[in-house]
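Predict the 3D structure for this chain.
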Amino acid sequence: MLFNTKKAATFALILILSVSLSTFSIPLISATEDSWATKAAMQVERSRLGVAVVNGKIYAIGGDDVYLSGNCLTAYGYYGKVLNTTEEYDPLSDTWTFKAFMPTPRCSFGVAVYQNKIYCIGGKASDGVTGVNEVYDPATDTWETKTPMPTPRMTLQANVVDGKIYLIGGKAGYTTSLNMTEVYDPETDTWTTKTSAPYRITSGASAVADNKIYFLATASSCSI
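Done. Predicted structure below.
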């Protein structure tokens, strides 16, 4: 990973589950060729955005401009102006296209794809931590608001298993970590609460294998 303190973040074919406080360049990696190549940069510089893939296109949604504000290293938990920008990246043409704005500007939210629609849940909004649940349909370039998550939180993880979206961990604020597990059913637009994680999980990464959700994360037994 090559850090660039003056340029915009360059996005490529890699799943970003969490974004650091600084903006950085991410080139393309090929597992078979074991090489990297730099691709076209996003049109809007930002960090802590949500990323998802639908029908071969990559969607970069929301985020904040903490790097542009010049405060990325001044204090733990600092956030810049939250954004609602939606951009679509075409790997075949190496081009970016602006799409419909996300209704609620925010960063550090959970993002998951179900039936070719992108669900953006929770995060840090302009007025604080939120549980807002908004879904983007790339086929129609439209957004729809759904039932909000019962527990507002940011820096959480979202994964799809058996048609349900699992929202795990996160923070209720800058200093309060959670181990909450809440499950969203896109078919019924309803929420249920499941068994909490063993530890309070803050920023981290997760993945699904064999219908199980695996975490690589920072965990805490206290409220930090």
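The first strand starts at residue 2 and ends at 3.
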